[in-house]
Amino acid sequence: MNLRKELTNFLNLCFIFSGAFMFWKGLSIITNSESPIVVVLSGSMEPAFHRGDVLFLWNKNKYNNIGDIVVYEVEHRQIPIVHRVLREHKNRKGEQFLLTKGDNNNGNDIPLYAPGKKYLQKSTDILGTVKGFLPQVGYVTIWVSENKNNAYLFYGLMAIAALFFNN
Question: Membrane spanning segments where (predicted)?
Fold first, then answer.
């Protein structure tokens, strides 16, 4: 194999990754969410969503309604949580606060929130409201994230395919 072809294949791989990154950032801007697409990792929202479902988020709504399914992050937890809005209230400034619960859970999410927190703040804690989903498409993400060796294997195979099987 000549050096020129190898370099071309490497640059094509770089363009694929940079294009995917630009698509992600563009989608983040359009949806006003730092994470516009998430994968369901647990069964806490069954039967509405199952493990491996891919969710599409939208965060341009000023307020959420009771019954909306939201994705939120809390301090000191790396994984976003997908649960339904159980209660809401607004303070004098018009800021919305939400209490959430997983459909398949017995109790509300207060034990999952940061210590001392009883509600999520719409403006700071909510990544987005679920607006659509694809069932079970996210199992590849789960498979890769649950075992470091799976990740190395997956990304290695992608790199080999891009470098050597490109016309």
Answer: 7-24
* Cα–Cα distances in angstroms (integers) from residue 56 to residues 38, 52, 72, 122, 127, in the given order: 7, 13, 13, 18, 11
pLDDT in tens, 121-164: 998 899 999 999 999 988 888 877 777 787 788 778 877 776 67
Q: Give CA–CA dist 158/162, Å, rounded.
A: 6
Residue 8's domain spans which residues?
Answer: 1-31
Shared domain check, 76 and 58: yes
Question: Is there a domain that residue 166 lies in?
Answer: no
Catalytic annotation on 44? yes
83 catalytic residue (yes or no): yes
Residue 95 lies in a domain: yes
The pTM of this model reads 0.79
Q: Which of 44, 50, 53, 89 is catalytic?
A: 44
Q: Which of 18, 33, 42, 109 is catalytic?
A: 109
Length of the chain: 167
Q: Are residues 11 and 65 in the same domain?
A: no
Distance from chain centroid for Cα 57: 8
- Counting the structural domains of the chain, the total is 2
What tens digit of pLDDT does each residue of 1-39 get? 588 888 887 888 888 889 989 999 999 999 999 889 999
